[in-house]
Here is the input.
Amino acid sequence: MAKADLDDLDRKLIELLAQDARVSNRKIATRLGVTEGTVRGRIKRLQQERLIRFTAITGMEMGPRVRMALIWIQTDVNQVQKVGNRLRDDPEISAVLVLAGRFNLLAICLFRELDELVDLAADRILALPGVRHVETAIAVRTAKYNARIARIVDGGTPIDD
Amino acid sequence: MSSGGDFSFDDTDLAIVDLLRRNGRATNQQIAEDLGLTATTVSARIRRMEDANQLRVVAVSDFAAHGFDVLIQIKIEVDNRPVSEVATELAAFSEVFAAHVVTGSYDIDLLVTLKELGDLHDFMFERLAKVHGIRTITPSIAVDILKYRFDKSIIQAG
Here is the structure.
């Protein structure tokens, strides 16, 4: 990961936009005592460097019946990348980490019915070529989580104003 | 965030949300043009979803923007103490980014963010190991993150 070079203004900007990304540049400029052009330029730079991404989180993901599952996967060593890419391309998987540890990959998904998780973990993932072993842990209680900080992998947001 | 109970999204709502997911800072006017609506309708729809706590349009910032260069997933087994109590104590650590009580072969799942790998030793042995009730600590270092998006993937029922 590259070291990010951020100043106080960047940090204030990120904090404001993390609360509500739809505030106009003009309002932000007034709040922070800078020009609209500065705000526009800073936002563009932060996006270009993949330090921020604007998105919408809906009740569908925040609903009371939504649970998170961690699927720990052991693969043949030479298949890690291939299996990882298959998991990444699966729209039902939220996160894929390549690990140095007893498990090579960790896939994280959100689900409502246990059946859906079984279909994904036990049937689909375990059946992938190169996958040796799968272990699932279901989050039953969240003690801490912040959806507004993440790893920004793809440039989902078009960078133009 | 409280749930909206019987709130439901119609096709227009979903189309607006879809555009916002791709660019949360698209103006009402841009969204309206894309969908053949008026800016007033777009604005009213967004407000209705936000007021019902069913929509938040936010900036998600990268771990790196906060100075974190290392991500570690840690499995914790607990003994002789209620698991939720241990999880609450761990959640208070600034290095702990996420803490979940889980069912499975271990008890607590932690996602830990560190400035550098050199900080891992102190974190594990000076901080974690001193928490009462922790029996084992199994860290896995994330050497690559292929995907990390919790804002749109949920396994669809049916």
Q: What stands out?
A: Residues 39-51 of chain B form the longest helix (13 residues).
